Amino acid sequence: MSLNHLIRRLAFALLVLAAAAARAEHFDIDLTVEGPQDRQESHSDECPPFEGSLKRPLFHAKAGEPLSFQFLFTNVYPHGALKRAGVLYYIMPLKTGPLRYPPKSMAGAVLSGKFLLDFKSHGKLGLKQKFQIPEAGHYLLRAESYDSGAEHEHFSAIELMIE
Amino acid sequence: MKLPCILALLLAGVRGFGGDFQPRIDLAGITLEQADASEVRTGKEAIPRKSVALSLGEKTPVHWTLAYTGAKDLTNILVHFYVVKVDRPGRPAVRETKPSAILVENAMSLDLHAKDDAKGEIDLVFRAPGIYLLRLEALSGEESMVSATLDLEVRP
Question: Domain tally for chain A?
Answer without folding.
Answer: 1
